[in-house]
């Protein structure tokens, strides 16, 4: 029986993936399979690749199915940013607006100068997290209490002086979006981002699904357990979205060609991928990491891994933030839970890899090498 064109191209993609000396699937199979005397490195993973319009999707380890939902952690941030830009397109806010206009309690210590663009590009001067965040999470504090503390925490520098990764900036943005719309952020994301893009398996928090339907994170922390119902359903704007690899691929592909779906104005979607931090210590888009971003948030440890992934992040001049062969147009994001999503419009390739092992332990051995190989397709 003759192959259809779609069958042929899918087979071609699978063949390309298997031609590497150490194939992509081989890396993930090895990482999710225990040895005779050693435990497996990663409990579960799902990979989704889109190459020239053709998909390769596979689940590994305990994931069971490519449709399994993971906590995507900081990949949540560009989703929150997209919701903000929907409101911008509707003239409900502007990037140049001061945060204090919407949240009057956010003032003092240069706070009056912080704009929405600063919050979206990690240039507000806010620290990454609260000094007592661990204690707040351990006693299951509310996001409202965390926001109140954020209004008092000292800024690291004057707004727009530098790029410094900040979960707290997204928490302030959450408060602004909810006050502007009068809707909880969970509902806002569903109505303004997930539903229009057909991301039916995505939600901020559990979205009504049982916690057992999401994949547990391999936590090595004592105290705050990220797999409790409190953590899963808190709806933390800096990293609380549960989603699938295929849903996140839809999200990435929208920004590759925003003309196919009615969500943002085309120029707005493209504006999110532009470097808004020229002249500062690293580039950043609206919510998105860009190809040369070298965020130190993940505390990558020194490594002599042959792919040189850690070296890329110790010196931003050595290469891109994603795959070694990614073009300068590449955008994406990491998640501290062990996730990565990126797209390279120039080479027409995109990748989502969701794992259960925190990124500081999985980037050198899995996330980085897989990204490098995918970037060579």
SSE topology sketch:
Elements: H1 5-18, H2 24-31, E1 44-51, E2 54-61, E3 70-71, H3 76-89, H4 116-120, H5 133-138, H6 143-150, H7 167-181, H8 185-197, E4 203-204, H9 229-233, E5 241-243, H10 245-256, H11 266-271, E6 289-290, H12 309-314, E7 331-335, E8 339-344, E9 349-355, H13 359-374
Antiparallel strand pairs: 1-2, 1-9, 3-5, 4-5, 6-7, 7-8, 8-9
Helix pairs in contact: 2-13, 3-7, 3-8, 6-7
Architecture overview:
34% of the residues lie in helices and 11% in strands. The protein contains 13 helices and 9 strands. The longest helix has 16 residues, at 359-374. It has 377 residues and is α+β, with helices and mostly antiparallel strands. The protein has a 6-stranded antiparallel sheet, sandwiched between helices. It has a 3-stranded antiparallel sheet with strand order 3-5-4. The chain has helices at residues 5-18, 24-31, 76-89, 116-120, 133-138, 143-150, 167-181, 185-197, 229-233, 245-256, 266-271, 309-314, 359-374; strands at residues 44-51, 54-61, 70-71, 203-204, 241-243, 289-290, 331-335, 339-344, 349-355. The model is unreliable at 295-319 (pLDDT under 50). 47% of the residues are buried. β1 (44-51) and β2 (54-61) form a beta hairpin. The two termini are 28 Å apart.
